[in-house]
Design brief:
Radius of gyration: 24 Å
CATH topology of the largest domain: Rossmann fold
Mean pLDDT: 84
Strand content: 15-25%
Order of helices and strands: HEEEHEEEHEHEHEHEHHEH
Number of domains: 2
């Protein structure tokens, strides 16, 4: 895994289980409880955050094993792993971990500043960095036969699912049929603006539109195109999207914005039934996630 660039006297990355010989292991007490509570709040609020934990130390160091710090994408932190130049380096690595989604095990020697060490306490520290990204949300707009099949398959695949339809009676029917209570599925109706207020779209939300006509697409696409959604896919024929695209362009949507839309959505598997079409749609979603930067994967 990536490791911060260190001088020649820095500790090598440990690849064996547990702390290397001579280093103090993490105690089993309550160290870091408040930081872990804050981490859970950040996860609940879908805020990307990296957790830095001192996993082993040797000789004189500013903080002991179990000390924790949260690092955010803007470089802000909560807690401390020792301060100074070492903490500055850890923070930079935390920001990088949020960008690439990769864990890191960092080793620092705090002996000789002239040789590039980030401190002179006389000891050695190992820190484990773990990025926590929001779970990917699949926002399904239009929950007729195909939309409902997409909702059910997305739930089975482990996505957080938000579903919307402008027809209240259909939303009620879907709530009953999929059993949304405690299922990780939120079913909404009313206007699209109301739905987006209840469940906003963020950078970890993929939008799948299985809507019924061009008029509805033209109505609901502008707020979607104004969102940070990294993927917006629309079911339907190529001709339908051409008509929708022209209407949106006439209404002032830019070419760059319209190019964000994937239509027709779905990998060609000769699908016919609603469930088969849902499989083709989710296959494209999975393919898109596999090709995205790691920081946007769940």
């Amino acid at each position: 895994m990536p490791e911060d660039t260190m001088p020649k006297n820095a500790m090598p990355e440990d690849t064996t289980p547990g702390p290397p010989t001579g280093l103090t292991p993490v105690p089993s007490g309550t160290a870091g409880i408040s930081i872990l509570a804050k981490l859970m709040i950040d996860i609940e609020r879908r805020r990307p955050v990296a957790l830095a934990t001192i996993v082993a130390t040797n000789r004189s160091v500013p903080r002991r094993p179990g000390s924790k710090m949260l690092i955010y994408a803007d470089g802000s932190t909560d807690g401390t792993v020792g301060g100074g130049e070492m903490e500055s380096r850890v923070t930079a690595q935390g920001v990088a971990a949020l960008a690439d989604g990769q864990t890191r095990r960092l080793s620092y020697s705090l002996v000789d500043a002239a040789a590039g060490d980030p401190g002179v306490c006389g000891g050695e520290v190992e820190i484990f960095l773990e990025p926590h990204m929001p779970q990917t949300t699949l926002y399904v707009l239009g929950i007729g036969h195909v939309g409902q099949a997409v909702v059910e398959l997305a739930r089975w695949l482990g996505y957080r699912v938000a579903a919307w339809d402008d027809r209240p009676e259909l939303a009620d029917s879907v709530r009953e049929s999929v059993g949304v209570q405690g299922s990780g599925i939120e079913v909404m109706s009313g206007s699209i603006q109301e739905a987006l207020e209840v469940t906003p779209i963020d950078a970890n939300t993929l939008v799948v539109m299985t809507t019924r006509n061009v008029s509805l697409d033209v109505e609901i696409l502008p707020p979607l195109l104004a969102s940070p959604a990294p993927f917006i896919g629309i079911m339907g024929s190529t001709r339908r999207w051409e008509i929708t695209r022209q209407k949106l362009a006439d209404a002032g949507q830019s070419e760059a914005n319209l190019n964000r839309v994937h239509s027709p959505i779905g990998i060609d598997v000769q699908a016919e039934t609603p469930t088969e079409i849902a499989v083709s749609i989710l296959a494209e979603v999975i393919q898109h996630l596999a090709n995205r930067p790691a920081n946007l994967k769940s």
